[in-house]
Design a protein that fits this description.
There is one protein chain. The chain is of the alpha+beta class and 112 residues long. It has one domain. It has one helix and six strands; from the N terminus they run ββββββα. The strands form two sheets. The chain has a four-stranded antiparallel beta sheet, with no helix packed on it. Strands 2-3 form a two-stranded antiparallel sheet. A hairpin with a 5-residue loop joins strand 5 and strand 6 (81-85). The radius of gyration is 31 Å and the shape is rod-shaped.
């Protein structure tokens, strides 16, 4: 199987991380008497959890032996192949079917 890279436009989607926000609870003021106990309110800070969604990269390649576009989904960190459409086995099956049809057509059993 010969797979050559295809020039693709930059269709990558970048995910933006949320900004850290600090939420401050309103203070209790203006009680009628100055003898009222003062309430302490602690600040609450929002910190986003680390991303657990893996980031992927999409590659488009042209399989020159079968003139098919192959889509590959790669893990950005490790570079490992996550998904390929059509799969390597499907490409081999298509190539074998094309070869068989060509042999049959060459024998004259099927007129194409």
């Amino acid at each position: 199987m010969n797979v050559d890279p295809v020039q693709a436009t930059s269709a990558e989607v970048e995910r933006q991380t949320p900004e850290k926000k600090v939420y401050v609870a309103p203070s209790l003021r203006g009680t009628a008497s100055g003898n009222a106990p003062k309430a302490e309110i602690a600040e609450t800070q929002y910190t986003p959890a680390p991303s657990v969604i893996p980031e992927h990269e999409v590659k488009l390649q042209l399989d020159t032996s079968s003139d098919m576009v192959v889509y590959q989904l790669l893990d950005k960190q490790s570079g490992a192949l996550v998904l390929q459409v059509p799969s390597a086995q499907q490409i081999r099956n298509i190539q074998q079917t094309q070869e068989l049809l060509q042999r049959i057509a060459a024998r004259g059993k099927v007129s194409l």
